[in-house]
Amino acid sequence: MTDFPDSLPALLAPLAAHSHHALRDTATRRYTAQHAVLHQRLHALYGHRPDFALWYGKLLGAIGSLLAQRPAALQAQDARREADPGWFLDQRMLGYCSYVDRLGGTLRGVAHRIPYLEELGVRYLHLLPFLRPRAGENDGGFAVASFDEVDPKLGENGDLDMLAAKLRNAGISLCSDFILNHVADDHAWAKGAKAGDQALRDYFLVYPDRTMPDRYEATVGQVFPQVAPGNFTHVEAMGGWVWTTFYPYQWDLNYANPAVFADMAQTLLRLANRGIEVFRLDSTAFLWKREGTNCMNQPEAHMLLQALRAIVAIAAPGVLLKAEAIVPTRELPAYLGSEGGNGGAAECHIAYHSSLMAAAWGAMAEQDAALLKAVIARTPALPPAASWLSYVRCHDDIGWNVLKAEAAEAPPGGDPAARLARIARFYTGEGNSYAAGASFQSSDPNAAHGSNGATASLLGLQTARDDVERRAALRRDLLLHGLALAFGALPVLYMGDELAQQNDDSYRERPQHAMDSRWLQRPYLDEVALQHRHDASTAAGQMFMGLRALLSARRRLPALAAGAPRTVLPSPPSVLALARGDDFICLCNFSAQRQPQGLDGVWSDCLTGQAFSGEVVLEPYALLWLERAA
Ligand code: OTU
C-alpha cells in the first residue's frame, strides 16, 4: 500500500518549480482531505496489480502538473467555490442546453447569444458535444475522435477558451459532455489498437469469439435494439468482438485497465483547465462490466466516480461533475454519493432526475399524478452540496423503463410494461391523443423503450386546430416547466422549448440521421420565433413570457432553492400539490377537467397576487404557484 507521506511528494513535485508557495500549501491541504478516499477507491480497483504503487505515484504527478498548469482565473474561482460548496444550489441557478451549431453556428457564434441567455437568466450553459467527432456517423458527437481538439466545423481550440472565458465573465458556467464510457473507432487509441498496439488494445474489451459476448448478452440490455442490436461488434482488424454498448463505432473503454482511468482523469483536468466548469458524465452507469449482471450501476462504477471526484477536488475544485445515468429511481441517489452509504464518499455534484422527467410526461398522458407522486416518494434527501437536475426535455428520448418500479406500484398498478407502452403509444399520437411524436427503438407497440419529439409537439401545439387547443397545449407546456422549476433542483431548459419550437422532421432526409428519431427534437434556434418572443399574439411569445414570469418569481423565492424541503400534500388523483417548505406550494392539474384543491390558510398567486383560502379550483392543465399570504 502506498502510504500518505510517500505519495504527497509525487503530487507536489511538479509544483516545486511553481513560484507560489501558496499553491503547494493548497495542494497539500486538498490532498490531505482527499487522500483516504482516492487511495482506497483506486487500491480497491487496481491494488491487486504489482505496479499499483508506481502507477498511483505517476497519476499523482500528472494531477500535480495539471494543477500547476491551471490558469490563475480558474484557481481563483476554485478558491471561491471551495469556500461556498453549495454555490450551484441557489434558486437563481438556471441551465440551458443546446448544440453549438443549432444555437450559434460555431463556438464564436454562441458568444453572440450571451445577451439572449442573460435575458433568460441562464447561469449554466450545456453545449452538446463539440470536440472532434468521428468522421461520418458520430451519434451527434457522442463518438469522440479526439478529446483535445474542437470539432473543426465549430471552430478551433482558441475559440473554446475564448467562449469559456466570455461565459465565465457573464456569470455563466460552461458545461460539456465528458463521454467517458467509449471513444470513436477512429480515436487514436482505437486506431492504435487496430494497428496491433497491445497496450492500446487493452483499452478496450475484445473477445476472440462469441463465447463471452453471448454470456454477457444473456443479462445485458440493449440501448439501440433496432438500429444497433446487441452490445458487441465484430472488428476484423481487432480479430474479434469489441464491446459496443451503443453504436458499433462507439467502443466501450475498459476501466478494469488502470491506464484507461488515468488517461481519462487527466483528459478531464485538461478540459477543466480550458474553462469548462461542469462535466456531464455521459453513460456513466455503464462504466464497469460484470458477467451475470446488466453491467450498469456496478459498485466499481461508483468507486471510479468517487476517485474522479477526489481528483477534481484536488486539482479543480471549482468544477462540478454531473451524472448522466438514465436508470431506475432507486439507483439514482448513489450517483450523488452519501454521507452514510458508499463508504461515506462524495460522488457527483449533480444527477439528472430522469425518473422525475419521465413520470411528469407519464402523468400528462394518464391525466393522473400517481406515477409522479411515486417517484417523488422514492426521491431521498440528498447529501449537502449535491443537487438533482430537473428538465422537461433534452436531446435524447424520454426513456420509459426507468419507471418500471413506479408503474407497478402506483395506482392503478397492473402490468408495468403494458402501462408504459400505453404512455409511449400516447406520445406517438395514437387514438385521440394530441401528441405528435415518435417511438424510439421499439417496433413492438406493446413494449416501451423511448419516445421522441419536441416538447410543444408532444403536448399538442403541433396538432392544435384552434385557439382553445393552442392555449391548452401551452398550459401543458408551462405546467411541465413550472414543475421542473419548482421541484428543487438545477433546472435546465432545452433550446427551443422557451419558444415552443416544434418537431424538426428534416432528419428523415439525412441518411446518417434518418434511423434515429431523436433528431426530431434537435432543431436550429428559430430566428422568427426569437423575434416574436415578446409578442403575446404568438405561441413563441406566450411561452417565452410565461416562462420568464415563472423564472422571475423563482429567483425571489428561496423556498425553490435545490436543497429546500419538499413535501407532497394530499390532492385529487390528477393533481400534484408539491410544498416547498411551509410557505410555497406548486399545484399542477394534469387533467383536462377542473379540479378542486384544499388549502390550509391564506395564499397568494406568486404571479398575479390573487388571494386564495380554503380551496382553489384548478383549471384544466393549470399550474399554480402559491406563496403563503403575509
Ligand atoms: C447518452 O445516451 C447520450 O445522451 C446519447 O445522446 C448518446 O447517444 C449515448 O449516451 C451514447 O453516448 O442514458 O447513459 O436511450 O438516450 O442511451 C446513456 C438512448 C444514456 C440514450 C441513452 C443515453
TrEMBL record:
One Pfam family, short name = Alpha-amylase
- Could you name the domain of life of the organism this protein comes from? Bacteria
Which one of the record's GO molecular function terms can you name?
amylosucrase activity
Q: Which InterPro entries match?
A: Amylosucrase (IPR044077), GH (IPR017853), GH13_cat_dom (IPR006047), Glyco_hydro_b (IPR013780), O16G_dom_2 (IPR045857)
Q: Which residues form the Glycosyl hydrolase family 13 catalytic domain?
A: 97-548
Task: State any GO BP term from the record.
Answer: carbohydrate metabolic process
Query: Record's Gene3D superfamilies?
Result: 1.10.1740.10, Glycosidases, Golgi alpha-mannosidase II, Oligo-1,6-glucosidase, Domain 2
Q: What is this protein called?
A: Amylosucrase
Instruction: Tell me which species this is from.
Output: Pseudoduganella ginsengisoli
According to the entry, what is the taxonomic lineage of the organism? Bacteria, Pseudomonadati, Pseudomonadota, Betaproteobacteria, Burkholderiales
